Amino acid sequence: MDPVSLEVMKNAFTFVPEEMGQVLRRTSYSPNIKERMDASCAIFDARGRMVAQAEHIPVHLGSMPLAIRAIRDFLREPLEEEDQVILNDPYRGGSHLNDITLIRPVFWEDDLVGYTANKAHHADVGGIAPGSMPTGSRTLFEEGVVLSPQKFLLRGRMDPLVQERVRKGMRDPRERMGDLRAQVAANNTGDRRFRAYLTKYGRPAFEEFADEIMAYSERRVRRALRTAPDGTYEAEDQLDDDGVMEEPLPLRVRVKLEGDAVTVDFSGTAEMSPGNVNAPYAVTLSSVYYVLRTLTDPTAPPNQGCYRPIRIVVPEDSLLNPRKPAAVAAGNVETSQRIVDVLLKAFAEAFPDVVPAQSQGTMNNLLLGGRRGDGEFAYYETIGGGEGALPFRDGMSGVQTHMTNTLNTPVEALETSYPLRVEAYRLRPGSGGDGRFRGGLGIVRSVRFLGERGTVSLISERRRFPPRGIRGGSDGAPGRNSLLRDGTRLPLPSKTTMGIRKDDVIVVETPGGGGWGSPD
Amino acid sequence: MPDHTKSAQSNADRGLERHVDPDNPAGPMLKHPVDPSKRQKPSNSEPKRKPPASRRFPKGQKPMHAVEVAREMEIPEVVVPPLPGVFSAYGILLSDFRLDYGRSVLRPLEGSEETVEAAFAELERKAEEELSTSGMPETALMLRSLDLRYAGQSYEINVPYGENLRARFHRSHEARFGYASGDESLEVVNVRLAAVVRRDRPGPKLPEGKGGSEGSREVLFAGSRTPTPVLNGRPPPGTKRDGPLIVEEETATIVVDPGTSVSVDEQGCLRIRVS
Fold it and tell me: ipTM more than 0.85?
């Protein structure tokens, strides 16, 4: 295929998931999607290979393709025109229960030619605490409603039983259904656009394009890998704790760079935890893909081809490859960040001019729930912090880093929708690590609860072990969680689920980034 | 046309040389006519609705590839007005006066009639005041509309105020996003008023095409070189010609492809029949 046609078709097909994302954002109900855009969209060919993705959230990168594979492996009935499949099972194509994926098969002249899929974070999916990310969950079932791949729409009509499970099992069912309708609409838009392009270019051209664009991305990644020195690089990092025991959990990795391929081996990492910091294989995959992508060729078109040069080894029953029904709520958000940290540490030798100091290494997950009107509400947000300094500039302050890429919820939107009031939202002076280049600053966010009674969940990391500087740079400040009640400050652990009452103020201080190079 | 020597060098660098035919360097690009107006906007914007276009009015530099684009969009006729290159500016000078007002009310649509009517009344008073202090006739057309959304959403659709408001909103939502939720409650976010003062538009005195000299040039149409008449200036009304033809004007160059035909109407517009 000539390069002009390849480029034009690439842009055309990349626009399909972009447009899906627009529909999703504009029609959804929960601030998670319409404000934070905690969602991703992608299209696949008939073989289930990802052809294009709108790159919203890195932690969704690896799991989207596994969702398609899960349909092929676990859905009992054959797919038909206007069907849509729903799933959130982390062990069957999902990542954590909140991320609900919807997939629509694309048919062309009675043949299956591809899929459109989108994945969005739902503020609540049931379980023992509002937000469905409770500290103390030991199995999946405590975290929420588990949906194995099943049809949500049959030939365009919503299945009443699945609808019932959503309405009865999840908090704020009106918001859930509004978001699911938006996800359905996003896939339908993608399907229409996909088929319009098939009409324009023809099916054989599309199939040729799919093969070529993947080969192209693969070539680019391989070329970048060849520039790094061959060798074996090892590193170790740790999670502060798993919310159950107070001991840190080690992550170990051995990276082997050989010519134009790379093997990433996580043997030696802690085993599965009784708590919920376990990272399903899909999450581990996403984290590895993210790091490799940023280090090799971040502008290579995102598709299956990028990942062909990568081989991943992770033992079964590891923290990074747990077995059902291990709880995983925090794995998706915290452990994923730590996988990135340990990989970057290993790669620091191979790519010294590129690897930054450690960023905040946590998503500072804050979940609040309580009564609202006649029903319940559940609210979720992640909070930015310090980016690690780079070899050529200071780290940015108050940003989302690595596996998360959501926007924040504007204070106005938050206060309009929930009985909450934001009393502080500012940077933490001095929290960035010193260095030739300074680490970015963390954030202070204080939220007052205005309801009568409610529940707060916090899932965070880098409260005990701070983000590290690199090459002589200083560490960033560790994060800190507190509850202000009746004028007293109560320290909160990194992971907790507890009851709160009117006028309690949750204060989250997020970590600063590490510095790069010696400050002298 | 790119400098062949320079592009041959960089093309070789990128391994493109086998794809570039020196006799037809733009060939691969012509398979994908790119209309700048179709270029996708950044993702903050609304998904585009295809405008109901039975004709196209190319302006600016578009007359150069208007026919190709029309073919692609299955539009049967292309109309090129006089002064195409400055037609937008001309239009702005002639357009109606318009004053826009808005007031946020943010409430359920159900039970909002009183508040909405009061808001419209207030905005209309404001409009009348501004019109009179600006020395404009007070007889303006008052266009009332509401920004509506399903309760729970954050993005609105503007719907003209009047009968069947809900039904029209559901239809708009469906047209834009592919679905409507008939049972869901609606919210009115903003009340909007546009005060429009129509202007008289006597037939504009546009430069009459008088025609000019006619030359000839070899032009590459879809890979084959074709001798093509080149007109210097727009021909007069009543002219009928077949493509290929190029009309060179002060503000634009109009390309009439082979296989199409063009005529000039009484207002001086070029009408190219594409199919």
Answer: no
